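Form P-L/3: holo structure prediction, ligand flavin mononucleotide.
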Amino acid sequence: MGYHLGAWRHPDLRADAASQFDSYLNVAKIAEENKFDLLFLADGIGIRYDDVPKGSLCRSSHNVELEPLTLLSALASRTRRIGLVATASTTYNEPYHIARKYGSLDQISAGRCGWNVVTSWSEQEAWNFNRAKHLDYDTRYERAAEFVDVVTGLWDSWDADAFVHDKESSVFYDESKLHVLGHVGKHFSVRGPLSVRRSAQGRPILVQAGTSEVGQQIAAKHCDIVFAAQQNIESAKKYYASVKNRLSSNGRTEDDLLLMVGLTPIVGRTRDEAQEKYRQLEELIDPLVGLSILKRSFGDLSHLDLDGPVPKPDLENAGLRSSAQMYYETAQREGLSIRQLYKRIAMAQEHLTVVGTASDVADAMEQWMDAKAADGFNIAPTHLPHALNDFVELVLPELRRRGRFRDEYEGETLRENLGLQVPRSMYA
Ligand SMILES: Cc1cc2nc3c(=O)[nH]c(=O)nc-3n(C[C@H](O)[C@H](O)[C@H](O)COP(=O)(O)O)c2cc1C
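OUTPUT (holo model):
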């Protein structure tokens, strides 16, 4: 359990941690005790790899995990302050389901819930939902844009003060404060209203991770957080500006959307200790698993010399276009071989990796924030809870010393703790 693709083989870890509720609860408690904003769960709705090269699938732990919304509902009842963000796909759900489930989790958690909007990228997911092929990229995103419009519309069904609960007059709610969406579009026909009331934070936090043009448009129109996979500060600055520049035409300000960069810290008390941890983690990566990771961006490379150069990806057909592009650029820039590239990706997937002391990690974080390349970070520990504990014990005190991290939660809801305004209802 963790972002490192060989984490399950780590000698200190329970190999089946990804299926154990207690493992997640432990991580959530550590994060909450140390005042993290939120716990973020990525998701895929199926085993998203095929067995190419042969023997790779049975060597991977990413084939069993718990369904995130179910998991977060359980965590909501055992935590009080930490935000809980789960991923769900717009391709294989209906907007009413998503609005209702996340709306309910937002009630259960008293305003601490968020939805990471994804369109899914694998053929294997399509096979689980009555389709022989995955929807093409443009259709997927067109559907996603309309999907999010419908969900946010449904979340505006009730004004905050709609429920009067007047036992005397027998009036449960004020009729004028209920709004029927009546959406009829290309992909969806949804009357509404939603059978869940408005939450303490107005509506769940919306997160988006796509980097493409249309992904950014969805983020600029509706989202509170963009989760970015960026490894290079210069390209991150461009991406940051590109996302923020789209906000004003959507009637929003730069402060309404936070850009969080995925960060994998490998921290030691000395640089040598950190490098040694990195080296130990590298040893956990099986070459077959390494090649299977590259397959979704580059196709099967097992016939090539692993110590030779990385070939150019076919971007049109890559499931994760932005990742394929980024991996290729990284390999070009740093002259990485196929083996070096998969080792790099397996360490932290597409996230920024900093190997060093607490000061090195804090320096990098400050540098990215001060350069307007990030508003914050989504910490993606290699293996849990150990790498999270390293961050908590070593890096957090350093960040606090520099006045860069809170001592206590500022508010009750996730939105308050993120410093975000409650969005106005479309009927206001
Ligand atoms: C940091 C990051 C995290 C992502 N997490 C998920 C996920 O949990 N589940 C999923 O199906 N897709 C995930 N994606 C895929 C994106 O939602 C999106 O479909 C993909 O990046 C392709 O869109 P793009 O070309 O606009 O980037 C993630 C992407 C990024 C960059």
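COMMENT: The first strand starts at residue 38 and ends at 41.
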